[in-house]
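Good morning C.,

I know you're traveling, so I'll keep this short. The sequence:
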Amino acid sequence: MIKIKKRNSTKKILKEEENIEQLQKQELESLQQLKKEVEKNIGPHPLTKITKSDIGRSIVGALIGTIGHFAFFYGAELAERISLPRATLLYFFSLIVCFFFMYYSGFRKVKEIKVLRFIPIRMAIVYIISIIVVILSLLIFGFVDATSNFEYIYKIVASTLLLSVLGASTADILGKEE
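The tokens, ready to paste straight into the viewer:
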């Protein structure tokens, strides 16, 4: 009778150990799943790198900002009426708007890098793309050509640049959580 009780108690203990092992396996799997989710979420912030996709979005945004609103029509009109110092002021204003737009729409949340070191690079890319898109748009629509003088090109680009920068900056920050 004592042997039967020992066998039953041994079976119960083995069964409990198996249950404990099963629970431990489930807990381990759960922890591994949590680890994968945490690793996925702590990857680099999407604003901390510049990709071909970012450049493409900036080009599309600059095109929408410039051509979508036909800003170059008004830019051509304004270019005839503004002075060179005012045009230069528009270039700086567009650059400042680009900085603040990017900073307040996403870079404030970036903690993995030094924002003041990285944002100028990203901003310069968006700004240069915007200038190129404006010039190409003006060329395509015939507002400037090889015979246009530098002062006129400088002023017409300045008067159109702000919308282009806004479009490019908007496109640059959209869709970052890929």
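Safe travels,
E.
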